[in-house]
Amino acid sequence: AITALPGPSRASQLDGGQQPVDSSSPGDTTDRRIASTLPPVPELAPSTLPLSAAPRAALDVAAQFTRAWVNHPPGITGEQWRAQLRHLTTPEYFVQLADVDPANVPATRVTGSPRAVQVAARSVRVEVPTDALTLLVLVVHSEEGWRVAGYDQA
């Protein structure tokens, strides 16, 4: 419960100076705090959709991203490698890719089709198998369309 301190509140000064009702008895010298309660807040839980509801465009972006991610021939610079990923990622996530050295990417080819593993209204988690690991790609719907906002090993 939230407790208001005694005395006029700024809100009561602005609404004509009306004071909250004091339920204490006359002459009562006990603390005159006025308690108010807020309605309960529902527990926040992400709503998920059936895997079949994954938009084809989101799966396609995950597949394109993974194909570009595994494309790091000897001699490619980090800048060249990231340039392949730029149009597929959110601007925020693209900045984070600056720390990735493509020489450390263990995979060299995609070995299967993208598969949605979690679907929400504006995001999809997609597994894409490669020759070294299965990449778990987070694709979000942004103003630019479906873009990668993160990846990890599944």
Q: Which overall shape is indicated by the principal axes computed on the Cα atoms?
A: elongated
The parts where pLDDT drops under 50 for at least 5 residues are 1-21
Radius of gyration: 27 Å
Structural class determined from secondary elements: alpha+beta
- Give the termini distance in whole angstroms: 43 Å
How many β-strand runs? Answer: 6
Strand percentage:
15-25%
Count, helices:
4
How would a textbook summarize the main sheet?
A: 4 strands, antiparallel
In N-to-C order, the SSE pattern is EHEHHHEEEE
The largest beta-sheet arranges its strands as: 3-4-5-6
Mean pLDDT: 83
Q: Could you estimate the helical fraction of the residues in percent?
A: 10-25%
In short:
With about 150 residues, this protein is α+β, with helices and mostly antiparallel strands.
Description:
By secondary structure, the chain is of the alpha+beta class. Helices cover 22% and strands 23% of the residues. The protein is built from four helices and six strands; from the N terminus they run βαβαααββββ. The strands form two sheets. The chain has a four-stranded antiparallel beta sheet with strand order 3-4-5-6. Strand 4 and strand 5 form a beta hairpin. It starts with a strand and ends with a strand. The N terminus is likely disordered.
